[in-house]
Amino acid sequence: MTETAAVEVRGLTKTFGRVTAVREMSFTAPAGKVTGFLGPNGSGKTTTLRMVLSLVRPDAGEALIGGVRYDRLPRPRRRVGALLEAASFHPGRRARDHLRVLADAADVPVRRVDEVLDQVGLAPAARRRVREFSLGMRQRLGLAAALLGDPQVLLLDEPANGLDPAGIAWLRGLLRGLADEGRAVVIASHVLSEVAQTVDHVVIVSEGELRFAGPLGEIGAENNALESAFLKLTAPTG
Amino acid sequence: MLPMMRSEFRKLSTIRGPWLLLAAGPLLVVAGISGLVQSGANLHAPATQGKALAHVSLAALFTLIFGILAVAGEYRHGTVTDTFLSFPARGRVIAAKLATCGLVGAAAGLVSSAVAVAVTAAWWAAKGGSFHLSAAGTWQTIGGGIAVNIAFAAIGVGIGALIHNLAAAIAAALAWIALIEGIAGQLLGSGLARWLPFYSSEALGRGNVTGSVRLLPQWGGGLMLAGYAAVFAAAAIVTTLRRDVT
Fold first, then answer.
1. Structure pTM?
2. Which end of chain A is more exposed for a tag (fewer CB within 10 A), N or C?
């Protein structure tokens, strides 16, 4: 086995104006596991993910995907699939066209577009414009986009957003399956109940700083162990 | 570069806005030439034919907005995040947008030119004037008009990258053309005003909407406009590289 973690975050720091959004954040996410990246709203999860994806430039530190910075990956969509909070679409574009734009960009065959539409259950709505989509359908389209390049690393920000209970159960199975295929799956969330049953690994952050990183088992075996640990670890300091 | 441009073309061709803008150019040409004829211009004077064909460069207003839309539209709907996830080399993304919009601008200019020639020939035939494609300056006017359409599309990409707010970017561009250059022209006087972007485009397209400014020669207007397009393109790349995408 290789020593290189699928995702490695080393000392990431980012300040917006006078607000330090992320401070010396370090953690790793292994292949074959679902890693929960957990923290309250505004704790720096999204900024961290955006730095991993080279969308936001860190003031210090770096993030590596299989040992390489995202913006140095030759075909990033084939290595990393990302779903960012409030995935963005042009409302007038049809779902299938949205994915075809990305397929052109990733240089993957159009066959993949229909495969991922099928995978997320959107095949019947493929030719509808996104403005007609519910929040849950948009979320599924965002997941389809993340899966398009068949990547080994998935970074998903609040993936259960807008999904109904059946959708959340479906998502859980999807993520488990992806990890079992050997992929590294990272899900950022502030809703513990959505992730508690899915994650193998947890990274807990608060106020832009790392509070805990390790296997779920280290937190405790009781039913509400994750919740009580989360509340304790993320309690506001001084 | 090819996957990038293919993706850009598909992005623009799968929504309605760009198509409407492309349709608006030829419509403006038809309306402008018809207006010129109806206002009683002398159809036997060779200069009138040139004036009619020079409407092609006015249609570049829409390739300008097209270029703005190709960038600022992505910021408006947040799809720019997906674009940069596909291609983290943002400078090349802007280069691809410049190339794509430049090609679209050329195609739009060609279509507007064909429409301008057809409409001018039809009006001249109907009114008993004498229209000749071989008349002096005809091809320079058409070629210049197409070049203006290309340059304005590139300048639009630059404006869209500098001003991410779509409405503000379009308002700024239109205000510049409709108001600011006119006022600046009066303040600076004709000798300086003719170096400004819109007056340069008038020189290149061999039109003269205001008629009050003595324009540069056509090649001079072309050089100035190419220079403006290069400055906007460079500014677009530099600012896009530096800004965080949040």
1. 0.92
2. C
